[in-house]
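Q: Can I see a sequence and its folded structure?
A: Here is a first one.
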Amino acid sequence: MSRKQQNAKFFQFADTLAQLMWLNLLTLVCSLPIVTAGASAAAMHYVLIHVLRDGKNGVTSSFFRAFRENFLQATAIWAVYFLIFSLLGVDYITMRQLDLAQLRYVRILVPVIVFLVLLSLIWVFVILARYTVTTRRAFLFAITRVIAYPLKTLLMAAAWLAPAVLCLRFPVLIIVYVLLGVSGSGYLCSRIYSSVLDDMEDDTQK
């Protein structure tokens, strides 16, 4: 590899890193009200799919355009997940307080359900960012992606969980998470789900 090619790769890497850091800031700031976290996640994945993956410009404009276009639907989807997690959390706390032997297996089942719902959550905003679909179909596509691609889904879950675990283990890394944690995890996931989206598009065209 020539020196010119090495320099080109370095500047490409630096440019991608800078865009990811800016995207991370946009995603975190627009998620602060909590209720807008769904729209922010969809906008982030839109940028990862349409801007960074395809080598296009316009991180900021693309982010806010996707944020506006997906706001109502993404917020409704986020509200559904928030309600599910809240109900499961209340059920789990209540069962622990009752401490009945009959509820032992149910207490084990609740975390399993939470984990499965989280796996579908990983996909739903990716689907929303890539396709124009109804809310029902977004849920359906997310669930079927979990079933059809379990290994890729688990790798994506690891990409999201690993930074949080590392920050808990090494608090000094929190600054790295603030700079790159969300968009960095999203970028790793985009490298994983890219082929899945391509397969979905090929199936649609057939």
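Q: Show me another, different protein.
A: A second, unrelated one:
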Amino acid sequence: MELIKKYYRNVIVLLLGVLLLSIGGALFLTANIGSDSLMVFNQGISVVLKTKVGLAIMISNIIALFIIFFINKKTLGLGSLAIIFLLGPTIQIIKDANIFKTPNTLILQILMVLIGIVIGGLGLALYMYADLGLSPFEGIIVTISNETKVRFGIIKIIFDAIYFTTGALLGGVFGIGSIMTVFLYGPTIDMFMKLLKKTNIIKKRS
């Protein structure tokens, strides 16, 4: 509670980020032409477990939490818990509410993915900018990068390839949308991060 009181603006930014990230994820799923690597991975898990994607997201994050807790728990924080317990359920609520409809043409499906990349990219940038801890999956990548001295970007590419391949083999949807996220998601997040860093919305953690 003390952390929330002290960094309440960070918490608000974090929760807004998770909400936007969830909307972006729901748009990816609704477009149905492929998502980012972790979504494809979680779709595959949901097929194997015969459960909804939202629950699969929570399950995979909890497993990743146990891993990162033992190898580098310093990366964890309130933001980690928000990703674990809020992201999956929020995505599922939005999906089940049928707020978005799957377009009947490829052009509109691609447009939906593009909108998802912008909204989700802003959400991810807000969550990172809040500086309240990494998601378990990001924590693992950061830890491996620090320990091996290999750049974060290279480790992430390797993990993304693993997630895409595993997810697709398990039944996740890999397609044009997935390729779009590979080339556009990172630059979109970077753009929003640069803009956010010029503001004084959050309180810097000491």
